[in-house]
Amino acid sequence: MPNRIPERTARPRRFLMCRPTHFTVDYAINPWMDPERPTDTALAVRQWEHLRTLYRRLGHTVELIEPLPGLPDMVYTANGATVLDGRALVATFRHPERAGESDAHQAWFRAHGYREVRRAGHVNEGEGDLLVAGRRVLAGTGFRTDPAAHAEARALFGVQVLSLTLVDPRFYHLDTALAVLDDDHVMYYPAAFSPDSQALLRSLYPDAILADRADAEVFGLNAVSDGRRVLLPEPAKALAAQLAEQGYEPWPVDVSELLKGGGGPKCCTLELRPA
Ligand code: ARG
Q1: Is 173 a catalytic residue?
Q2: Is the pLDDT confidence value at 60 over 90?
Q3: Is the N or C terminus of the chain more exposed, i.e. has fewer CB atoms within 10 Å?
């Protein structure tokens, strides 16, 4: 009997993005950033515009936060907050270079009618480390987000929060090593996690798609899924093929310029989950 390809269902999403008007790499807070290497801001803007256009074509809503000079990493809106049930837990960044982004996000959420807007009391880099998977949050730690922030998220959102420990500095945020495909499915790169976290992931998601090292190293896991369509960096070819075999539609995107800051499509995309 031929293997059945599962039917996947897309759900329209609401995203927050920030145009990379001030994008550059002039400090290094992750191993991908090299201030010596030139960046092309105009190209970053074009790649970002393409991403935004694609979301709209796929039926999603994109809201924008104003880019601020001196905050070149602001394009990575995923780090600004975690939003669930209309509640926004606004980031507290580990590095002083990004601290100013917290105020900008807090002001944005306050101005847009969220029922609760709280600034994290511990280091918490938003959806970089706190990924919502159905009624559960998968929460990364090891490089950026403090484990105490996981407990704070549990208290605010009232959902299960499972901690996962990252061990490879190249995969410094959870969203560089794991992507949520829909409420019940994920894909990830096992070697980015501690042995205990690998065991936890195996027990939670026995049928998960596993990325190989080459696809993880081109940020293939920094992907955005609407349940069916999965936008991921274009060089992650084997991962795209695995997604297609599992009934998802891979949508490769060119984010080469944005990768110089250590971020891909997911880093540029914060999901807004209404009440
Ligand atoms: N340069 C940024 C940093 O190191 C990149 C953030 C990428 N965002 C993400 N969600 N992983 O903080």
Answers
A1: yes
A2: yes
A3: N
**pLDDT (tens digit per residue) in 33-50:** 999 999 999 999 999 999
State how beta strands 116-119 and 87-90 pair: parallel
Q: Are the CB atoms for 126 and 91 separated by under 8 Å?
A: yes
175 CA → ligand 1 middle, Å: 9
At 132, give phi and psi (nearest 5°). Answer: -85, 125
109 CA distance to ligand 1 middle (Å): 20
C-alpha closest to that of 52 among 75, 33, 32: 75
CB atoms within 10 A of CB 112: 13
Residue 26, classified by CB atoms within 10 Å of its CB into exposed (0-12), middle (13-18) or buried (19+), is exposed
d(CA 236, CA 275): 35
Query: 3-class DSSP state for residue 84?
Result: strand
- The catalytic position among 60, 105, 150, 173 is 173
* 112 has catalytic annotation: no
Is pTM beyond 0.70? Reply is yes
Beta-ladder partners of 83:
88
Whether the per-residue pLDDT at 1 is higher than 60: the answer is no
Q: Is the pLDDT of residue 224 over 80?
A: yes
Which residue's structure tokens are 């809106």? 77
Q: Which of 76, 132, 257 to mutate to test the pocket of ligand 1 (most atoms within 8 A of CB)?
A: 76
Task: Compute the distance between CA of residue 158 and CA of residue 177 in angstroms, rounded to an integer.
Answer: 25
* Per-residue CA distances from 75 to 120, 134, 137 (Å): 20, 26, 23
Percent of the chain surpassing pLDDT 70:
99
Ligand 1 geometric centre to CA of 173 (Å): 7
Quick: pLDDT tens for 151-161: 999 999 999 99
Cα–Cα distance, 92 to 80 (Å, whole number): 8
